Amino acid sequence: MSLDTNELLIALSIAAVLGGSLAYLFWKQRREVKNAVKANEEPKQPALDSSTRQLQLQAYERLILLTDRIALPNLVSRVNQQGLSAREMQAVLTHTIKQEFEYNVTQQIYVTHESWEAVRNLRDQNLLIINQISSFLPAEATGHDLNRSILEMLMQSPNASLHNVVSEVLSFEAKKLMK
């Protein structure tokens, strides 16, 4: 194994630990809600009027869309541009994630703290993956090389990407509001 492969494995391990930790926290929260329902207890939620509930549902909808838009496979295919260097493509990818996130930052006031943290963790993880993989590429690497490396890493370590877990959490929270 070369030094670059070891560094990539370390970066993937960090991403997997972050992903696993987040997945565990969401699983734990979901289990607690299910246990409360089984015990014939209603999960404690303040009474909401229909307009507040509608705003919350719209926020969850926008955050699910954000999660899908910044999912690395979707992002790579959407912003792919021929002729860019790896560093330029890194800048495009990271800028797009940050811009998408900033556009939706106000949605945090309508969703649970856990849901917002999940979205933030997804953003941070995706930025980390892009920057880590980019740092292992040679200076003459192309944007295509970076995109291919990102997609290969995701295929080798499907658990490294949190977007499915975050989407499920957001969907679960939105469904609780619709009851």
Task: Write a structural description.
The chain is 77% helix and 0% strand. With 179 residues, it is mainly α. It has one domain. α5 packs antiparallel against α7. It is globular, with a radius of gyration of 18 Å. The N and C termini lie far apart (53 Å).
Strand content: under 5%
What is the share of helical residues? over 70%
Number of domains: 1
Q: SS-based structural class?
A: mainly alpha
Report how far apart the termini are: 53 Å
Number of helices: 7
Outline the fold blueprint.
Layout: H1 3-38, H2 50-70, H3 72-79, H4 86-103, H5 113-136, H6 143-156, H7 163-178
Helix pairs in contact: 1-5, 1-7, 2-5, 2-7, 4-5, 4-6, 5-7
What's this, in brief?
By secondary structure, the chain is mainly alpha-helical.
Keywords:
mainly alpha, 179 residues, 7 helices, 0% strand, globular
